[in-house]
Amino acid sequence: MQVRPEISIVSPLWNELPNVVPLIQQIFSAFRDEPRPIELILVDDASTDGTWERILEMRQSDPRLRPIRHLKQSGQSAALWAGFKTARGDIIATLDADLQNDPADLPRLLAELGNCDMVCGVRTKRMDNTLRRVSSKIARIARKTILGVDFRDTGCNLRVFKRSVLSTVPAFNGFHRFMPILTQGGGATVKEIPVTHHPRVAGKSKYGVWNRLGRGIYDLLMIRWYGKRQLKNVPILDPCASEFSQ
Fold this sequence. Notes:
By secondary structure, the protein is an alpha/beta fold. Helix content is about 35%, strand content about 15%.
């Protein structure tokens, strides 16, 4: 019988065949000194290039790898949420599958989790093209203007957080870009630390002006509405609490 994992690493993939093997190898290498049991959940978003078959091949050599697959392509947000629902650990880590996020940074993020509820990576030296860098700067200005918050890099998916954080995050298409904002808005504490960023060396980027920048700014208006309508934790008096805690 497998030991229940304490840490679940979730990574969504769509047509990332060349990156499957190095991704798995680098993640397990990063956690080789981690005493707590882990599981690696790779969520295939209905890939058509052999990504799923390669994940299943790799599963044969390491039972800590847990493959799940969308039967219909549903996007990155849906893939991450499927991974969260599948995860068994009390701590969840996420990263992109293109290896621009460095799995070796995850233990550093985990070490900071004792002081907060979520730790997010900040790509201080981004290895992206001009379009992506400019789009990120515009998005940060828009977040600060519309929401009044100033996280440096909400687009970095290299994160670790306590499972309890999920209770502050509504599931919608695009939620992953706003997780730090939603988490903080729900009363949890969020910390940002610098992480490494690599250029993509295999596979094809799924980035586009509309599917990231354009839709992201559109979603900001929805997040602003949600923040104003969100029910906050209100202190209550419960004289019977001690009776029901026994």
